[in-house]
Write a structure and sequence with these properties.
Length: about 400
């Protein structure tokens, strides 16, 4: 019996040694991976209808607003100016976000957060998402610099702002945006990609690089440009006053009639010159004030929409690790859609502060909605705008 029991004990020990042991690191990795897949968005039927309707309205409105802006600038001769090239680039980037990115995010959210489009398309989707959103943000930065240079150098900058120059700037913006999407495609930082999850790479170096280029540096530049324009407006307000030359006392007896007449002629000439300068200063002042207001609204909307998402994206890999995200999925999606909403706001801001765009839209809406909506009526409205 003792020999049999010793043989059984040896067999049991050999069996325990043969069984694979799981290390803490591998078990924690599996836990992270399972937690990624288990972060689902659970909606009732009523919630799905409401959220789906809201996402559809947001997507369709973004497409319509940016498409109308692109068509207006491309078809109306008066709007084909180098200063509008960045605005068209911004509208194209926002339009791409609405067409290429928003529908897939909407479907993923409505089915609970599962990625159902495959691993290969996940990398393509992340590349398009990052490139289009980055191009939109960098174009906003270019617009802020353009506004500042137009105010600080009103005589020389409009001459240098040629079509070729602005086209090169737009091309650089898109190439820089594309450069952020390349590292995950060429092995520097792999995206988190399995059967259920499609998440941008959480590599620490890549996260710092991508968020700095795509958000933090452009935001700092925009804030600096807004401050400089605000200072210029403040100085203009301080100088914006007509100072008339003091008149001599008419009751002085030793002033002859001839000298009095000469003095009055000189005073009238100086007043005329002052009024002429005042009209020019008034025009510059209004332009500075409008540029400051426009840029202030753009910077405010940009910061409100994108700052929460990029703060979360920067902190997430340092807190959750590089394998997965420990942030609740509904928080990530809410902040992501808040950033996408900036693509809807941008065309409305540009239209509200651009009189030519407003006039074009009014002609299109008046002719198409007070009559029959057709391609011929749209052509007539555009011809009318070109003539004006």
């Amino acid at each position: 019996m003792s020999g049999l029991s010793s043989e059984m004990l040896e067999l049991r020990l050999m069996k325990n040694q043969a069984e694979p042991t799981t290390s803490p690191s591998s078990s924690s990795f599996m836990g992270n991976k399972s937690s990624c897949g288990e972060q689902l968005l659970r909606y009732g039927n009523t919630e799905k209808v409401l959220i789906g309707g809201l996402l559809i309205i947001l997507t369709v409105s973004t497409i319509c607003g940016n498409l109308l802006l692109v068509l207006s600038v491309c078809l109306v001769k008066k709007l084909k100016q180098p200063s509008n090239y960045p605005i068209v680039s911004l509208a194209v980037a926002d339009l791409a976000v609405a067409v290429v990115v928003m529908p897939f995010v909407s479907i993923t959210d409505l089915i609970g957060g599962h990625w159902i489009f495959g691993q290969l398309f996940c990398n393509v989707f992340i590349a398009m998402d990052v490139m289009c959103c980055t191009a939109s943000i960098l174009t906003l930065c270019v617009i802020s610099i353009d506004r500042y240079l137009g105010i600080s150098k009103p005589l020389t900058y409009p001459v240098r702002r040629s079509g070729k120059c602005m086209a090169k700037v737009v091309l650089i913006v898109w190439l820089l945006s594309a450069s952020i999407t390349l590292p995950p495609l060429f092995g520097w930082a792999q995206n988190v990609n399995d059967d259920n999850v499609c998440l941008i790479s959480q590599d620490l170096g890549y996260t710092v690089y991508s968020t700095a280029v795509a958000f933090y540096i452009p935001m700092c530049v925009m804030l600096i440009m807004y401050y400089q324009i605000y200072r210029a407006v403040k100085i203009s307000v301080a100088k914006h006053a007509i100072t008339f030359p003091p008149r001599a006392d008419d009751g002085v007896s030793y002033v002859s009639a001839v000298l009095k007449l000469q003095r009055e002629v000189k005073e009238r000439a100086s007043i005329t010159r002052l009024l002429r300068n005042e009209r020019r200063n008034m025009f510059v002042f209004k332009r500075e004030q409008k540029a400051a207001t426009t840029l202030g609204v753009m910077v405010g909307a940009f910061s409100v929409c994108w700052l929460p998402f990029f703060l979360l994206s920067t902190v997430r890999p340092f807190v959750c690790g590089v394998r997965c995200s420990c942030v609740p999925l509904w928080v990530e999606r809410t902040l992501l859609w808040l950033g996408y909403a900036n693509s809807l706001i941008n065309p409305f801001i540009n239209t509200f502060f651009n009189r030519d765009l407003r006039t074009t839209y009014q002609n299109l809406i008046y002719r198409n909605f007070n009559g029959k909506f057709s391609a011929s009526s749209m052509q007539e409205a555009l011809k009318l705008q070109n003539q004006t």
